[in-house]
Amino acid sequence: MERHFNSPAKINLCLHVLGRRLDGYHELAMAMQRVDLSDRIRIQVSDGSGVRVSCAGLRLDVDEENIAAKAAKLVLAESRRELAITISIEKNIPVAAGLGGGSSNAATVLAGLDKMLGLELGQRRLMELGAQLGADVPFFIYGAPAWATGTGTQLDALPSLPDVAYLLVNPKIAVSTAWVYQSLELTKGGELANLPRFSVVTRDDLCAALHNDLERVTLQRYPLLAEIKQLLLEYGACGSLMSGSGATVFGVFADYAEACRVAEELKRKQDWLFYPVKPL
Ligand SMILES: C[C@](O)(CO)[C@H](O)COP(=O)(O)OP(=O)(O)OC[C@H]1O[C@@H](n2ccc(N)nc2=O)[C@H](O)[C@@H]1O
Ligand SMILES: Nc1ncnc2c1ncn2[C@@H]1O[C@H](COP(=O)(O)OP(=O)(O)OP(=O)(O)O)[C@@H](O)[C@H]1O
C-alpha cells in the first residue's frame, strides 16, 4: 500500500513568551497559520518490520533521528501491529528555519498512517501522540489557523484572518530552536490574561499584531535578519516578522502576485531563498 501526502510549513503571526517552566520549556501564546510551501511525503506499508526514512539530498535520513521515523514508530506501537514502513521525504521546506518542517512531517506521518491503517485514532489522540514528538506537532494535526497556548500544544480556533499573501525569505542560515529558547533572557513574567486579544480582521490589523519575542535573541545574533525585515517593508510589505525561532523572515502583501513580483526583484540582487506563499 502506498500513499502521497503534502506536509506544509507554518508561520507564527505572533509569539509571546510568558515564562520558563522548571523542565526548561516555555509558556507561550502564539497565533499560527499554515502556508502552501510543502514537503511531499510518500508512505509505503508492507508486510515485515522496521521503519526506514529517506530524504533525497539531505542528511536527514538517519532513521532514528528523523522525526518522521519516530512518528511512524509511535503509530505502530499504538496500533500494536508489526509492519514494514518506508517513508520518502521530498524536502522543499528549509531545515531549521522556523517554519516547522520537521514537526509538519511528523504530523503528516501520524495522520497519514492512521488513515492508511484504518486506525481511526481521532484528532485528540493524534495530537497527544504528536505532543510526545515536539511542541509544534499538534498544531499541524489541528490543521487550521490556531491560537496556541501552554507550550504551544493547547489549540483554539482563530476565527477570522485576512486574505493576504506572504513572502518568506531565508538567507540560508540554520538556527537551533533549543539555542534560541536557552539564550532568551526573560525580563519579566507575562500573564496570558494581560495579552492584547489577537483579533485580526483586516490586513492592517494583522500587521499591527505581528510580534515575536524570540527576535530578541535571533536578530541580535544575525543582524542581517533585521535588515531583511526592513527591506521587505521598503519593497511594499505592510508588515514583516521573523517566524518561530528563525531565521526565516516574512513580509505581508496584499496578494500573491505582489509577493511574487517582490521575490523576483530581490532574487536578482540576493542569493537567498524566496518563497511567495498563500495561507492555508
Ligand atoms: C519556535 C516554535 O517553532 C514556535 O512555533 C516552537 O515553540 C518550537 O516547537 P518545536 O521545535 O516543535 O519544539 P520541540 O521540538 O518540542 O523543542 C525544541 C526546543 O525548543 C524548546 N522549547 C520548545 C517549546 C516551548 N514551548 N518551549 C521551549 O523551550 C525545547 O526546550 C527544545 O529545546
Ligand atoms: N523530517 C525532518 N525534517 C526536518 N528536520 C528534521 C526532520 N527530522 C529531524 N529533523 C531535525 O530537526 C531539526 C529542526 O528542523 P525543523 O526544520 O523542523 O526546524 P524548524 O523549522 O526551526 O522547527 P520549529 O519551527 O518547529 O522550531 C533539524 O536540525 C533537523 O536535523
From TrEMBL:
<keyword id="KW-0067">ATP-binding</keyword>
<dbReference type="InterPro" id="IPR020568">
    <property type="entry name" value="Ribosomal_Su5_D2-typ_SF"/>
</dbReference>
<keyword id="KW-0418">Kinase</keyword>
<dbReference type="GO" id="GO:0005524">
    <property type="term" value="F:ATP binding"/>
</dbReference>
<feature type="binding site">
    <location>
        <begin position="94"/>
        <end position="104"/>
    </location>
    <ligand>
        <name>ATP</name>
    </ligand>
</feature>
<protein>
    <recommendedName>
        <fullName>4-diphosphocytidyl-2-C-methyl-D-erythritol kinase</fullName>
        <ecNumber>2.7.1.148</ecNumber>
    </recommendedName>
</protein>
<dbReference type="Pfam" id="PF00288">
    <property type="entry name" value="GHMP_kinases_N"/>
</dbReference>
<keyword id="KW-0414">Isoprene biosynthesis</keyword>
<feature type="active site">
    <location>
        <position position="136"/>
    </location>
</feature>
<feature type="active site">
    <location>
        <position position="10"/>
    </location>
</feature>
<dbReference type="GO" id="GO:0016114">
    <property type="term" value="P:terpenoid biosynthetic process"/>
</dbReference>
<dbReference type="InterPro" id="IPR036554">
    <property type="entry name" value="GHMP_kinase_C_sf"/>
</dbReference>
<dbReference type="Pfam" id="PF08544">
    <property type="entry name" value="GHMP_kinases_C"/>
</dbReference>
<dbReference type="InterPro" id="IPR014721">
    <property type="entry name" value="Ribsml_uS5_D2-typ_fold_subgr"/>
</dbReference>
<comment type="pathway">
    <text>Isoprenoid biosynthesis; isopentenyl diphosphate biosynthesis via DXP pathway; isopentenyl diphosphate from 1-deoxy-D-xylulose 5-phosphate: step 3/6.</text>
</comment>
<dbReference type="InterPro" id="IPR004424">
    <property type="entry name" value="IspE"/>
</dbReference>
<feature type="domain" description="GHMP kinase N-terminal">
    <location>
        <begin position="66"/>
        <end position="143"/>
    </location>
</feature>
<dbReference type="InterPro" id="IPR013750">
    <property type="entry name" value="GHMP_kinase_C_dom"/>
</dbReference>
<dbReference type="GO" id="GO:0050515">
    <property type="term" value="F:4-(cytidine 5'-diphospho)-2-C-methyl-D-erythritol kinase activity"/>
</dbReference>
<keyword id="KW-0547">Nucleotide-binding</keyword>
<keyword id="KW-0808">Transferase</keyword>
<comment type="function">
    <text>Catalyzes the phosphorylation of the position 2 hydroxy group of 4-diphosphocytidyl-2C-methyl-D-erythritol.</text>
</comment>
<dbReference type="GO" id="GO:0019288">
    <property type="term" value="P:isopentenyl diphosphate biosynthetic process, methylerythritol 4-phosphate pathway"/>
</dbReference>
<feature type="domain" description="GHMP kinase C-terminal">
    <location>
        <begin position="209"/>
        <end position="269"/>
    </location>
</feature>
<comment type="similarity">
    <text>Belongs to the GHMP kinase family. IspE subfamily.</text>
</comment>
<dbReference type="InterPro" id="IPR006204">
    <property type="entry name" value="GHMP_kinase_N_dom"/>
</dbReference>
